[in-house]
Amino acid sequence: MKTLLRLLKSFWFLVPILWLISLAVCWFFAPRISWLQGYTLEAMAIISAFYLLLIVLRQYRRIRTEHNLENLVQIEVDRSLKSTGEFRDQQVLRDRLKHAIAMLRTDRSAGGGGSSALYDLPWYLVIGMSAAGKTSLLTRSGLSASIASSANDTESGTQHCDWYFSPEAVMIDTAGRYLRDDQSASEFAAFLRMLKKQRSKAAVNGLVLVVSLPELLAASAAERNEMGARLVTRIEEYTDCLDANPPIYLMLTKTDQLPGFNQAFDGMDLHERQQPLGMTFGLTEITTESLRSVLDRKLANLQAHVSRHVDAQMIALGADANSALLNFPNYFAELSAILEQFLQHFARSNVNGTQLLLRGLYFTSALQTDKQLTPVYEDELSESFVLRPATAPDALEEDEQRKISDRSYFITDTFRRVIFPDRDLTLYQSRHGRDKSLGPIVIALALFAGLAFIGWQALSFQKNREWLAAISQQLTELEQSPDRAQRLA
Length: 489
Hints:
55% of the residues lie in helices and 10% in strands. The protein has helices at residues 2-8, 11-29, 40-83, 90-106, 117-120, 134-139, 177-180, 182-198, 213-218, 221-242, 261-265, 270-274, 285-288, 291-317, 323-327, 330-333, 335-347, 376-379, 397-400, 412-419, 440-480, 484-488; strands at 123-128, 146-148, 161-166, 169-174, 206-212, 248-253, 278-280, 358-363, 368-369, 403-405. The strands form 2 sheets. It has an 8-stranded mixed β-sheet, with helices on both faces. It has a two-stranded antiparallel ribbon with strand order 9-10. β3 and β4 form a beta hairpin. α8 packs parallel to α10 and α10 (221-242) packs parallel to α17.
């Protein structure tokens, strides 16, 4: 439905329709206007020339903006490298960036036929703390993205901004230091202001907030509050620069560290592993209801969904099933209080009365390691989630996090079926949190008024035709009347 509405509002649908309507109006009414009589075809040619000029001007603006966007991206890349004094990667990243953009433009499935992809495609900011799993989330999202990154094979984590150019979207993977370091954040905010000038309608179509679920669960209440407050503060700075209130999608990564995850979902095929696992909030749901009640209801539904899957898996595994699999759905029920403590900062209005638009919360796993949270339901003694201690004091961290599987879970369709279809939501949400879209009553009234006007014009046209026919009949009778001269006298 969203795709159909976007098509009906698109330039290439509306302009041909308006052009045909204009030609039809000219064809029917131009002969009835005294100063246009005999010039109907010329008037239609002028109308066609006007629409052709409109198309040419639009294409010129798109080409100019596309060129400006490419330059802006290149300037931001150079600035980011210079700010840290890392000049050795500058030319490499430039080449990667040019190659990625060129690949995007040659992809015929990209927005605008590829040639104006940077202008037409939605843009998303991917933000999160260091080691939250942002890069793994994007590289294993299954979106066929060309990547422009300065990271070497020996480096881990995002050092600057990594650029992901997919036929469906442009995604900016920001470094974790942009959340910690005010100077880096200020410089990136300047880039967002420049981006707003080039993409005036919607500079950024959404924010993908990546948070490590194990880190969130293992943190103390004070640490969770501090993390939530820091993220909200930085996001509000970015939304001020964008002069918009883009939707925020919270991605909880490393869900595979919940005990029982691997056994619960190991038998899934590719299609099942691409499905979203989480919840989407209505535009006013958190505002009209309390955050806790919304989380309780959504998590209960999610737990029921996971429980049905686990029950089927228990039957399939039989004697091979263990208690971790049986208790796996319980973790989702226990998340409500922890998530409320973290998300309460997003549900609050700031001093200007602005409330961030939290659109959804989703659980993901980009790859699986042997590091897991302590199975708290085994001993029923722990009231919080803690990381399993190392078996030996001198155990190496890389041994603790040895990769056991590289399959991605619940990522691809979260982007394709949830995030990307919401690409126009930013257009209808002001920076002050107000809905700028026309309500259904206003749209219905406008449609009714339009239909009434068309009906009135059609009825008037029919009455005029009947009146002209009656006059013509009277003139014919008068012409054939024997006393025509007497009646005209």
